[in-house]
């Protein structure tokens, strides 16, 4: 006795298992994307890097403008986006604003990425 | 004998040393910002994560659409941005496109950041 089996059309069938295993959940993805949006501009990447590279771990806005070749209002605008994303904290001292990295913020953003 | 020294007005003076020490150079900042721009959207973060989470290290476009709840053309558009950023590579097999992570691409983007 023979049984007829339907032919599988490999090109038309779906394949593999659903790719959701250890993937990042929606809420975490929102947080990660928000962090990376703050770093999707080369000037902000450089500003973050400059703050991290100071011996004291902090930088005055007055020392951040010249290296990136931009006006203080423009640099302040970029810094606000880094602060809003939770990557940097701001402290006003007299007429100057000082910035330092928020400990662990960037690590949290990359922790669940497939590195 | 006494010598008169000028009073330093701490609030008006500039401070600290220029914050350029080990900071990221412009070209590298462009590369990093381009990579992070591709990951500045939560759907793309999830897509990258899903590909990285598959046992085989690759995922078919047909298995990526349902988990993110978007149409195949929309997911294809997101995937193109990940490919253009150099984070993912694409291979066409029959009617399906398959994606896998580009080894070391994300590591290169974060290597010089102040973590």
TrEMBL record, chains A, B:
GO terms for molecular function: DNA binding; DNA-binding transcription factor activity. It holds the Pfam family HTH_5. Keywords: DNA-binding, Transcription, Transcription regulation. Residues 24-115 form the HTH arsR-type domain. The keyword DNA-binding applies. This is ArsR family transcriptional regulator.
